[in-house]
Design goal:
- The structure is a single chain.
- This protein has about 525 residues and is α+β, with helices and mostly antiparallel strands.
- It has three domains: about 120 residues; about 220 residues, Aminoglycoside 3'-phosphotransferase, Chain: A, domain 2 (Alpha-Beta Complex); about 160 residues, P-loop containing nucleotide triphosphate hydrolases (Rossmann fold, 3-Layer(aba) Sandwich).
- Helix 4 packs across helix 10 and helix 14 crosses helix 16.
- It is globular.
- The protein starts with 17 loop residues before the first helix and ends in an 11-residue tail after the last helix.
């Protein structure tokens, strides 16, 4: 496709200096581009040519990577391809060679490839800058449904990710993965060490956060260690901020994960999720932050991790603060970009501090029959209250070993929806409510609460824990209720198993709210469900 003569404009003998001369699209095999756009980061160059992007790793050494040898760059290109194809198989194409030929540099491979290999590149499909999630968000083009779908996919990806195994004999992680302990506290303290050097004017705030981080970790050390034993340390993305998520083929897809450092990648799945959640808040969308957290927890069933969520939100905000602080060092003090980057750094530090504070304790219980819009209304409430929602349908499915949208057999349904099972689920919801309150978040309990005794149990519990209690009732006429339940059955995409028979039973057995209970009522939008 490309003759040697076509490459004559790209002559370059130095295998590292070729970067400067690879500005002609004829250097790139298999592209249809008419120009080459070069982007530079601190560890790579990216060549945008036609429909493709070619990512080349810089031959450098830093405290966390060493790309100086050709072999290391080849291995890391292959590793990047392996890792990022887990998330974006249609975005990442292959690893191609960079060859020095008698007539110049050739980037890409063909049956006629000749010359000496001087470098390697990861070839990807190109996408527009405005497809990046941070740009989509600023343009107002992201919806709650987009966040929910992304959270569900992320949970599924984490579920299928490689994980540390535990030897049953000594309860210690096996050597099957590079990381054999939870390094979260070491990572956090190293982050503080760098921040103190980079932004000394932020020392008072940083010092408060250091004390909080250490104290929190010590108080929850058993839980952090238990995450290792329970195999929640997995091969994750590692750098999941909004700039590393792209709207590709109508899906929000992670890309550009960490390939160069095992320790940054083999982390608690909650740390990975918290990175994206934190960055929504950093971009002014704390509502989406909590939508992501809640939808992820529902999909993963990992409610035991709730006490660690705030810690990881703080840590991830400080990671982004450090990245901004490092970028500050790359510009002259009078540069136009310095003020903007400094404000970004300070904004992330301020966000980290805000996450370290406990929220005012509040318990909100939903009330309503199937199809009344409880889940829709609670999704809005959790965004407003920055709360953790507990869905009885999800808790019930997990309790009986089923996936959220998996339908029970007739026998299973009898067991799952017996009076004894329902009482057990409400007990479980009460225990989780205590867990969430202790973790410093408001709680929304998305259950029917059709019996006055169920509501009174939660009211008494809330009073004993000095929290604010509220009831969010949801109502709809019978025609609407039946239509919604039927439509949900047809979609088959929700955890609820309620059918029209169950709805009819609920309509005749509900204990309506008393005059006293109505004093605790708050308004929730269930009409547009």
């Amino acid at each position: 496709m490309h003759s040697n003569q076509a490459h004559s404009v790209c002559r370059q003998a130095d295998p590292q200096a070729w970067i400067e001369n690879a500005r002609d699209p004829k250097c790139f095999i298999g592209t249809d581009g008419t120009e080459v756009i070069v982007r530079e980061t601190h560890i790579s160059w990216v060549f945008l040519v036609g429909r493709f992007a070619f990512k080349v790793k810089k031959a450098i050494q830093t405290p966390f990577l060493d790309y100086r040898s050709l072999d290391s760059r080849m291995q890391m290109c292959k590793e990047e391809l392996r890792l990022d194809r887990r998330y974006a198989p249609n975005l990442y194409c292959d690893v191609v060679s960079v060859r020095q030929t008698p007539d110049g540099i050739v980037i890409g491979d063909s049956p006629e490839s000749e010359g000496t290999i001087v470098d390697y590149a990861v070839r990807m499909h190109r996408f527009d800058d405005d497809a990046i999630l941070s740009s989509r968000l600023r343009a107002g083009e992201i919806t709650r449904a987009d966040i929910c779908h992304f959270a569900q996919e992320l949970a599924r990806l984490h579920e299928s990710s490689a994980r540390q195994s535990v030897a049953s004999s000594d309860a210690e992680p096996s050597p099957s993965s590079p990381i054999r302990a939870n390094t979260a506290i070491e990572d956090a303290m190293e982050n503080f060490d760098e921040l103190r050097q980079l932004v000394p004017d932020q020392l008072p705030t940083l010092q408060r956060l250091i004390v909080w981080t250490q104290s929190f970790y010590e108080n929850h050390s058993l839980l952090f260690d238990g995450r290792v034993r329970a195999a929640f340390i997995r091969e994750c993305h590692g750098d999941l901020h909004l700039g590393n998520i792209v709207d590709y083929d109508g899906e929000l897809v992670p890309f550009d994960g960490i390939e160069f450092n095992d320790r940054f990648r083999w982390i608690d799945v909650i740390s990975d999720m918290a990175f994206a959640a934190m960055d929504f808040a950093a971009h002014g969308r704390e509502d989406f932050c909590f939508t992501l957290i809640n939808e992820y927890l529902d999909q993963a069933g990992d409610h035991a991790a709730i006490p660690l969520v705030r810690w990881y939100l703080v840590y991830r905000a400080l990671v982004r603060a450090k990245v901004a602080a490092i970028r500050l060092q790359q510009f002259d003090s009078d540069s136009d970009q310095v003020l903007q980057i400094r404000q970004e750094c300070e904004r992330y530090i301020s966000l980290a501090e805000s996450f370290s504070y406990r929220r005012p304790p509040q318990v909100t219980i939903m009330f309503g029959v199937s199809g009344s819009g409880k889940t829709f209304a609670s999704a809005q409430l959790l965004e407003q209250q920055h709360a953790i929602r507990l869905r009885s349908d999800v808790i019930r499915k997990r309790h009986f070993g089923l996936k959220n949208t998996q339908r029970p057999t007739v026998e299973q349904q009898h067991d799952m929806y017996s009076n004894a099972a329902t009482a057990e689920i409400y007990d479980r919801l009460l225990r989780l409510t205590r867990l969430v309150l202790n973790a410093g978040f408001p709680v929304i309990v998305d259950a029917a609460f059709l019996k006055r005794e169920q509501r009174e149990t939660f009211r008494r519990f809330t009073e004993e824990h000095h929290a604010h209690f509220a009831i969010a009732p949801c109502y709809a006429d019978v025609t609407t209720l039946r239509h919604r339940v039927g439509k949900r059955i047809m979609r088959n995409d929700d955890a609820s198993d309620a059918d029209l028979t169950i709805l009819d039973h609920q309509l005749y057995t509900t204990d309506e709210l008393s005059a006293t209970e109505k004093q605790s009522v708050i308004t929730a939008d269930c009409l547009t469900a």
